[in-house]
């Protein structure tokens, strides 16, 4: 894909929140589009991946036991969502598969390409990492709220759920 298309996709993502125009163009040179067909697996359950993905269009299902008779969809991610941020940071295997729920386009940033910018462009790396931390913080906050809501529900039901 062309550089302008990558710049446009990156500009619309959470990764670009704090980037200057020059930094945006620099980072766009490090990312690449990937198009997925419905049902195509972006990252398999139990596999680690060195990419941080951003959904440009379409949707990805976070699915346990994908391809088995009893898959469980844990979450649906849509345009603008960051995908694989924790595995990108620490190389841990994915708890669930990332599966395209229809035609989906993502762009990916390899960990090594971001790390290569560290010495010459530390502010770009810092700002990308801040965007990742903000996303993880939002996920953690949402999970905490859901935990409280579930605890309240169980308490109100006197443990009968």
UniProtKB/TrEMBL annotation:
<dbReference type="InterPro" id="IPR018490">
    <property type="entry name" value="cNMP-bd_dom_sf"/>
</dbReference>
<dbReference type="InterPro" id="IPR050397">
    <property type="entry name" value="Env_Response_Regulators"/>
</dbReference>
<dbReference type="GO" id="GO:0005829">
    <property type="term" value="C:cytosol"/>
</dbReference>
<dbReference type="InterPro" id="IPR000595">
    <property type="entry name" value="cNMP-bd_dom"/>
</dbReference>
<dbReference type="Pfam" id="PF00027">
    <property type="entry name" value="cNMP_binding"/>
</dbReference>
<protein>
    <recommendedName>
        <fullName>Cyclic nucleotide-binding domain-containing protein</fullName>
    </recommendedName>
</protein>
<dbReference type="InterPro" id="IPR014710">
    <property type="entry name" value="RmlC-like_jellyroll"/>
</dbReference>
<feature type="domain" description="Cyclic nucleotide-binding">
    <location>
        <begin position="15"/>
        <end position="135"/>
    </location>
</feature>
<dbReference type="GO" id="GO:0003700">
    <property type="term" value="F:DNA-binding transcription factor activity"/>
</dbReference>
């Amino acid at each position: 894909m062309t550089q302008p298309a990558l710049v446009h996709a990156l500009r619309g993502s959470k990764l670009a929140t704090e980037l200057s125009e020059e930094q945006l163009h620099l980072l766009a040179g490090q990312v690449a589009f990937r198009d997925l067909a419905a049902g195509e697996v972006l990252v398999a359950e139990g596999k680690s991946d060195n990419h941080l993905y951003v959904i440009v269009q379409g949707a990805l299902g976070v699915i346990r036991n994908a391809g088995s008779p009893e898959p469980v969809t844990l979450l649906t991610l849509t345009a603008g969502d960051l995908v694989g941020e924790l595995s990108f940071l620490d190389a841990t295997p994915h708890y669930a598969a990332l599966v395209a729920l229809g035609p989906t386009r993502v762009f990916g940033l390899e960990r090594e390409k971001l790390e290569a910018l560290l010495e010459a462009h530390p502010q770009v790396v810092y700002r990308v990492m801040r965007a990742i931390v903000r996303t993880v913080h939002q996920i953690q906050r949402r999970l905490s709220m859901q935990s409280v809501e579930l605890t309240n529900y169980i308490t109100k039901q006197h443990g009968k759920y």
